[in-house]
Amino acid sequence: MTGKKRLSVFGATGSVGSSTLSLIREHPDKFALHALSANSDYHSLAQLAQEFQPSCVVIADEAFYTPLSERLSGLGITVLAGQKALEEVATQKVDLLVAAIVGLAGLAPVWRAVEAGQNIALANKETLVAAGHLIMPAAEKNGATLLPIDSEHNAIFQCLRYESQADIKKIILTASGGPFREMSIAEMQNVTIEQALLHPNWSMGPKVTIDSATMMNKGLELIEAAWLFDRGAEKLDAIIHPQSSIHGLVGFKDGSWLAQLGIADMRVPISYALGWPDRLGWQGQDFDFSQALQLDFAPIDGQKFPCFSLAKQVLGQSAEQAIILNAANEMAVAQFLAGEIGFADISTIVERALAAGDSGIKAHSYEAVIALDREIRQR
Ligand code: NDP
Q1: Residue ranges per domain, the chain?
Q2: What architecture is domain 5-148?
Q3: pLDDT of 327 higher than 80
Q4: For 345-359, how does the pLDDT look when each residue is reduced to its tens digit (9 = 90+)?
Q5: How many Å lie between the centroid of ligand 1 and the Cα of residue 100?
Q6: Which atom of ligand 1 approaches the CA of 127 most closely?
């Protein structure tokens, strides 16, 4: 790597954002920050800006512009607020833009960054679920590169680095099974928010942690993989692997399989994307192969995890179905986290939304995706 890479980190105050910044902290000689963004946590954003001295910061919620500006006054850092500013900064040329906003709120900056031909390290899976049919061709047209940092997709990306597309027989994503892997369907009916937030292997933001507990996360990831790796539903699958040591596997036409192993720490896949096409030095914990290492695999029980089944049904169907799935799930997870519905209601809400269909909006453009998403949420 020559010179410093200039980065923008969208969603800097979240779990993926923090992991990204901890790697940048370890490699001050390799990275410089152009922009950092948050939604409303201006306090953390100000602290990060004071430490990393980016050229600019963006707070999406305009209500926090004034306190953020006051905290950063005199530092020479440009302070911006609002959706339009977020989109504008996404077009400002950097070596890598880390897309770590949660939910479809992350689509607008990713879309603008794709239009601007940026290199994008993508964590925000909801953008590809809802708009993969637009993002992938737009990326190709504009010369934008998508580097997946979702650990499973990053694993597949690594396995495919030197392979020919025509030789791929199957892509398999692994899933820990979440906190309720060992529970019966009856026991899962009354789980609490606290139980659902206790992921056995990964430390993540609340939305993706609940998605992991329902296993909607693995369904969303299959749809994400279909776009990233240009594969049909028949070539994609997911299996339970409770140790979360192997993150993804690729089977080839000659009977060989490649798998990527890494400890369950998001900084491993993020490090790959930050260093790409090189690799950064790893300063964290690693496997100890002098100790016995167990690797278990099991199929996913679609009856026990109806959210996974619903997403699998949507995989390979219309873009509109995927938008409905994503919007209904985001709404249901927010309601569950607010204590308004039970855990089992999440899949019921998504199922009903899919059955109700859409009002005829076709997701042929970015604006239409946003309109359909809004319609489903209002409903
Ligand atoms: P967090 O909830 O921890 O962080 C979300 C970030 O997005 C925060 O910086 C938040 O700002 C910002 N944000 C939230 N809403 C908006 C909005 N409306 N407009 C602008 N910014 C917003 O999420 P995670 O880091 O867990 O996840 C981020 C993405 O990465 C998700 O799509 C997730 O599925 C994916 N992912 C996450 C993994 C993980 O380990 N966490 C693993 C693999 C994928 P503020 O702090 O101000 O609210």
Answers
A1: 5-148, 162-264+292-306, 317-379
A2: 3-Layer(aba) Sandwich (3.40)
A3: yes
A4: 999 999 999 999 877
A5: 5
A6: 32
